[in-house]
Structure formats: structure tokens, C-alpha cells
Predict the 3D structure of the following.
Amino acid sequence: MHFVESKNILSAKNGMNLYRGCTHGCIYCDSRSKCYQMNHQFEDIEVKSNAIELLENTLKRKRKKCMIGTGSMTDPYLPIETEICNVRKALEIIDYYGFGFTVITKSDLILRDLDLLKKINEKTKCVVQMTLTTYDEDLCRKLEPNVCTTKRRAEVLNVLQDNGIPTVVWLSPILPFINDTLENIEGIINYCVEAKVYGIICFGMGLTLRDGNREYFYKKLDVLFPNLSNKYKKLYSNNYIVNSTKNLELMSYFYKRCNDNGIVCDNDKIFEYLNTFEEKPVFEQISFF
């Protein structure tokens, strides 16, 4: 862990990264890609020391309320969050200034902040996005070794549902010859149906590989699934988009299950929902005495 000072905190689309780097250890992580110009070891988490001050200064000057997002590059609920508490501090500020919030995570640490998520959701909209990739628990521990498994994430989705927090699931990535099975997709969708998620984001059954994360991914395949990296190299070469050979079959099943259960599976519609700020009416209690 190391600290840096940043000049700004929100992107043009109102996203923020409180940390850079990750310790979840997911073997496929796109954020390892060289194009993101991370000039430190990926597991050496960069902490923006002035993030909370920057966020407050930015939000109190914003003329128009909006959704504030985090987690697109780095899961903010890393183990160091229990010590630094930047996410919780950011939530307090977002709540105070009346903005909406959405987060992408794989961690059950988010339940620590359930009180603040509920407060935000009472006034506007708070949406938790949870990544689910692998129904089989043992396989999940191999692919995503340092974060809670899919079963636990599904439990978190149910807790959020019970507390009125809307949820969206990212069904991504699906790794060819590893978890691109009907049983895997069925198990994940069953979790989503049970948790009554609003929608599932899926860009197809596969993954993306760029310089940086491709090398790391193949190195992990050599350890976990010997000879599989050679199969990838032969079939996909240096392709950016790596689609499963079962993509059409699995996507057909995915769309049918979502439509049958009232789960939104139109990515554009889901992103519009995530980006739309909603201000909920405040009903004052009238006393008759």
C-alpha cells in the first residue's frame, strides 16, 4: 500500500476510483492491462490520500445532482478498506449532499455499509452491482482466490433485496473451456432469480485479453489448468475478444431465462438505469393532534 495525492476525483461520467490496484487475485482481471498505465505493482494498492476532501469539494459545487459510481477499475471493497474506510467516508458525503450511488464489487464487505446504502436509497437511488462468474465453489476459489465466493455474493444480493436496495449482476467474464457451461450459467441465473435482481449485464460468453492481463492470465492457466494456455493461443492467437465456442447456445439460454423471469438483459437499458438520477418524494407525516 502506498499513498498519492490526486488532482481530481470524478471522471467526466462521475465515476471515481478511491484505490488503484487489487488484491482479489482474479486470474482474468482486465485492470492489469498495460493500457491503464499503472506504474506500480498491481497488488501494491495505491490510495488517494486526499480523495475524500476532493469528493466533498466537488459535490458541494455541482449544480446538478447525479449518480456517483465506483468500482469499474478497482473493487473499492478491498481488505485495506477496513483500515482506510475511504468508501464509507465517501458514502457519508454522497448521502449528505443528496447524490445517488452505484458500485461494482465482489466483496461481502459492502454489508458493513448497509446503513448508508439504505439512507441514500431512501432519498434517491442506490444500486449495488455484483460480479458473478462461477457457480461451482471450488472452481470459483481458483479463479477468484482472495475474495468471497459466488455463494456468499448471492447471499449478499438477498440481504440487499431484503433491505430494498436494487441490484444488478455482471455475468462476466466467462472463460472458454473453464466455466462456459450450461450448468454454470444456470446456477448463476438461479441465484439472480432468487435475489430478484433488476438486471444482468452480459456482453457475451467470453472474456477480453490485452497486453498485460493476457500474460498474467496464461501464466495462471499454466498453473491451474496445464496445457490450456496452448489451446487458447492456438484458437485465439492475440485476439482482444475471446468468445466461447458455445457463445450462441449459452446466450440463447441466458436471454430466455432472463425474459421468463422479468430480469432486464438489455445492456443499454441497464446502463441507462444505472446512470439516471432519481429524487424520491419526501412524505411529511401530518399530525392530527
